[in-house]
Amino acid sequence: MTGHCLCGAVQVEATHDGAPKLRACHCDMCRRHGSGPFFSINARVLSVAGPAQSYRSSDWAERGFCGTCGSTLWYGTVADGVRHLSAGLFDNAGGGTLAVEFFADACPQGYALAGSQKKLTTQETIALFAPREEIDQ
Predict the structure, then answer these.
(1) Beta strands 118-119; 97-102: pairing state
(2) How many other CB atoms sit within 10 Å of the CB of residue 36?
(3) pLDDT-based confidence at 18, cuts 50/70/90?
(4) Does residue 72 surpass a pLDDT of 90?
(5) Using H for helix, E for strand and C for coil, what is the string for 98-125?
(6) CA–CA distance, 81 with 2 (Å, rounded to integer)
(7) What does the DSSP 8-state code read for residue 134?
(8) Among residues 53, 83, 82, which one has the least CA distance to residue 65?
(9) Using CB atoms within 10 A as the burial measure, which of 2, 48, 64, 122 is most buried?
(10) Phi/psi of residue 30, nearest 5 degrees
(11) pLDDT over 90 (residue 91)
(12) Rounded CA gap, 83 and 62, in Å?
């Protein structure tokens, strides 16, 4: 799969196993960053070219963006270096279907995503992504 940001300055190449799956995150940071849920796709990053920058948004995460147009590129976990690419980089969201919602209990009352996808609570989501020492505090 190939994709790009709004202005085209950042080009992304990625691959995925099987059918692409989309994930939505309703955490406060994602909603503040993009004014709604962050949609990512289960793709493995092969390359990112162009003026990509990142912002360390928490102890365990970073958010990538285009240095020219500001488009969201990824949510990354710092401990393992994995980048969860923005589904919007790819035409038709890479043809993916919604598989899971993170921080589902934090979804604002003003909208809801239709479907029978898995919905993880804040506690379940943090258990997946936060370093063990963060959870134990």
Answers:
(1) parallel
(2) 13
(3) confident
(4) yes
(5) EEEEECHHHCCCCCCCCCCCEECCHHHH
(6) 20
(7) H
(8) 53
(9) 64
(10) -65, -40
(11) yes
(12) 9
- Token pair 């898995």 is found at 118
- Beta bridge partners of residue 75, listed in sequence order: 63, 84
- pLDDT confidence of residue 137: 38
> How many Å apart are CA 7 and CA 14, to the nearest integer?
19
User: Which token pair is 95?
Assistant: 């043809």
SS3 28: helix
Lookup: tokens for 66 = 């285009």
Altogether, the residues listed in the chain come to a count of: 137
**87, 120, 127: which is closest to 106 by C-alpha?**
120
CA quadruple 86, 92, 94, 95: dihedral sign: positive
Looking up tokens 């990142």 gives: 54
Strand partners, 15: 44
One DSSP character per residue, 72-103 reads EEEEEETTTTEEEEBGGGSGGGGG-EEEEEES
